[in-house]
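Researcher: Sequence recovery benchmark, item below. Answer with residues only.
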């Protein structure tokens, strides 16, 4: 099952690369190393089908290492899938190391000649030299990005295993940053191993965030390398590293090979899960080969994970080496395939049923292929992993979860069999086409006012009320997050409010124990105070807005040359929407009588109304004055509100004004009617302000009667308004605040 490393292209340079041949090999001078990485023990440990996959593959590697009688076992990082593995995972892992790495049947033939306290800070020295523990196969491991050290003490699960003398944990860096050097410094020192005449300098570098490590490599003096003090050229230099490779990755989030030292002979590059069976040469490193062992278990359903999994045997003799790859048999079969719906004739772009039928046919073929491969290789039957990547450009999709229900019990991953995607070119076109729609969505989100956002918060928190945070203030923070696009609005709100709660708790008696009920009570008090502040701020904003509106209206009234509203005997009339002819007719009729209408003030000739003062599109000023009903009734030609009109055009004007009078009620706020203003007090408002928002109040008779007894027309009374005599009594009610 083993295959020798190298290929015909690289075999020609065997002497230059130091490849070891089969002749003249002395066992007493050859160091045999089993290499593996990315075992991810504990992956999907709660999945009934796949919970044993990681342990089965890792146990096969340990088993093979014992059969080959290797001198040591090297693990390149990510031994565990989680930084804090479960107790079950730790117990099972410790059991595997105890079963295959401890015992008396194999004597360790290598010797560590370097400073062991420097190499293994988690333990007193290498584990096989501890007289209390019988080690038959020493394990050397570095940490990866999944099981890296955390916390103030920088500890990981590997520290637990090394403390128990189950493995030798090295390559751990103490990244201490100072005010002068914020990036920190690292020192890479090798573990010096010797067997006979072969000397091995084993370098190890546990995972460091790729961007940070790249900056450190580019900073002079940030990374230091140590070499053996005596005859460094006699040592075979090997390195374990767990980082992203630039191939197929973002260069900013990877470590380039050129950062490493040129004197390295062999590099085990872990973290990449695709297993490459042959070592590779790199143009930036002379006389150096890079081995990418890959993972032993599939943790993502990608194309790289579907390739065969391997473990590797590395044999070193002097300055020569060779590798052998061993395909793993206890790995769950994984088939990956890419299809395009455009290449399937039976699929109708508008019928999802035809799409489902075509994909089921393809999956049946993949299942048959997996069964035939297992029988041909003699592997035990296991439910396979299947991933079908479907290009659905121009076609409809189906529900992957519902589709996978037909394959339950036949595959190991029925819920994620399908992965739909679109072609790159088509997706770029679609992005431009949907730019307008996305902009409209953003505008709709921005248009949400505070009341709408607060109501959304209230509705969603009815079932699960908040104990500590006030809903009103949370609505304001959410409004800032949505409308102002402040990404820190919610975070700042929670931190500031919790700080207030802490201050409130500190004010209590320090000897009193604060229970959860006390904390909720304090939170309710703080919420009431916060709501009171919000109400006060809202009232102030309303008053300021009202004052600003009145000020703007006064400025408009002073700047306009003509007045567009006339005082009548019935109170206040709105003339800004009347036709020009009707207004001119009233003015001419009043002049023919020889006196101005009773409701018109004495004003200079230039200020007397002469029809409309501006076009319909302009903003007309409204001079609204409350007057008492005159004792003497005016004539029909002079007064627009008389019961019997002798002029047909005047009746048309009255009807038009009555139908348009709704705007006045919306233009004047209730506060102005309750403020106790005296006779001849004038209020000016902009044209058509608030016409649609206050449709209910149709007309106000603003005479000098008591303000709280001013008559109000209802919708029914408005329809019959023309038939009501000028002095007819009208239903009255008190003016009330609508707030």
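Model:
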């Amino acid at each position: 099952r083993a295959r020798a490393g190298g290929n015909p292209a690289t075999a020609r340079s065997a002497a230059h690369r130091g490849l070891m041949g089969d002749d003249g090999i002395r066992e007493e001078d050859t160091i045999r190393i089993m290499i593996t990485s990315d075992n991810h023990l504990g992956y999907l440990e709660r999945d009934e089908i796949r919970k044993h996959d990681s342990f089965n593959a890792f146990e096969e590697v340990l088993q093979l290492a014992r059969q080959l009688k290797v001198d040591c076992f090297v693990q390149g990082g990510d031994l565990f899938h989680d930084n804090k593995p479960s107790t079950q995972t730790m117990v099972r892992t410790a059991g595997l190391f105890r079963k295959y790495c401890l015992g008396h049947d194999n004597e360790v033939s290598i010797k560590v000649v370097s400073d062991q306290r420097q190499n293994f800070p988690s333990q007193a020295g290498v584990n096989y030299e501890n007289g209390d523990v019988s080690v038959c196969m020493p394990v050397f491991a570095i940490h990866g990005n999944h099981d890296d050290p955390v916390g103030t003490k920088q500890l990981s699960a590997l520290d637990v295993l090394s403390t128990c003398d189950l493995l030798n944990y090295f390559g751990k860096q103490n990244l201490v940053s100072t005010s002068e050097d914020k990036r920190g410094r690292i020192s890479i020192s090798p573990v010096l191993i010797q067997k006979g005449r072969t000397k091995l300098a084993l370098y190890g570098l546990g995972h460091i965030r790729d961007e940070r490590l790249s900056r450190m490599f580019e900073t002079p003096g940030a990374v230091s390398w140590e070499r053996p003090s005596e005859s460094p050229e006699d040592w075979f230099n090997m390195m374990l590293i767990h980082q992203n490779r630039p191939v197929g990755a973002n260069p900013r989030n990877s470590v380039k090979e050129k950062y490493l030292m040129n004197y390295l002979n062999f590099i085990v590059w872990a973290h990449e899960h695709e297993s490459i069976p042959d070592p590779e040469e790199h143009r930036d490193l002379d006389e150096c080969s890079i081995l990418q062992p890959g993972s032993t278990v599939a943790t993502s359903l990608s194309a790289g994970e579907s390739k065969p999994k391997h473990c590797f045997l590395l044999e070193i003799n002097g300055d020569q080496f060779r590798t052998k790859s061993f395909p793993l048999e206890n790995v769950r079969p994984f088939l990956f395939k890419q299809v395009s719906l455009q290449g399937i004739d039976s699929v109708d772009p508008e019928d999802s049923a035809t799409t489902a039928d075509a994909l089921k046919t393809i999956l049946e073929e993949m299942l048959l292929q997996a069964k035939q491969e297992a029988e041909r290789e003699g592997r035990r039957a296991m439910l396979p992993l299947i991933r079908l990547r479907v290009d659905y450009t121009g076609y409809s999709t189906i529900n992957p979860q519902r589709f996978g229900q037909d394959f339950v019990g036949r595959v190991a991953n029925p819920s994620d069999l399908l992965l739909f995607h679109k072609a790159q070119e088509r997706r770029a076109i679609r992005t431009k086409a949907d730019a307008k729609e996305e902009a409209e969505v953003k505008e709709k989100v921005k248009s949400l006012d505070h009341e709408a956002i607060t109501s959304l918060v209230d509705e969603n928190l009815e079932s699960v009320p908040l104990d500590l945070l006030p809903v009103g203030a949370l609505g304001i923070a959410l409004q800032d997050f949505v409308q102002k696009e402040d990404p820190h609005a919610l975070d700042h709100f929670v931190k500031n409010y919790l700080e207030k709660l802490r201050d409130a708790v500190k004010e209590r008696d320090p000897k009193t124990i604060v229970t959860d009920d006390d904390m909720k009570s304090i939170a309710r008090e703080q919420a009431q105070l916060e709501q009171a502040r919000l109400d006060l701020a809202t009232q102030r904003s309303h008053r300021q807005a009202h004052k600003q509106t009145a000020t703007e209206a006064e400025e408009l009234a002073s700047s306009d040359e003509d007045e567009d509203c006339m005082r009548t005997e019935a109170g206040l009339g709105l003339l800004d929407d009347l036709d020009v002819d009707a207004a001119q007719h009233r003015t001419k009729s009043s002049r023919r009588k020889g006196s101005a209408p009773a409701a018109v003030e004495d004003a200079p000739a230039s200020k007397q109304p002469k029809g409309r003062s501006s076009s319909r599109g302009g903003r007309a000023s409204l001079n609204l004055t409350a007057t008492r009903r005159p004792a003497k009734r005016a004539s029909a030609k002079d007064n627009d509100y008389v019961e019997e009109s002798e002029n047909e055009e005047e009746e048309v004007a009255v009807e038009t004004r009555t139908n348009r009078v709704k705007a006045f009620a919306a233009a004047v706020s209730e506060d102005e009617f309750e403020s106790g203003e005296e006779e001849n007090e004038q209020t000016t408002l902009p044209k058509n302000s608030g016409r649609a928002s206050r449709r209910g109040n149709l007309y106000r008779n603003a005479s000098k009667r008591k303000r709280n007894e001013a008559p109000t027309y209802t919708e029914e009374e408005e329809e019959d308004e023309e038939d009501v005599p000028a002095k007819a009594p009208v239903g009255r009610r008190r003016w009330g605040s609508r707030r």
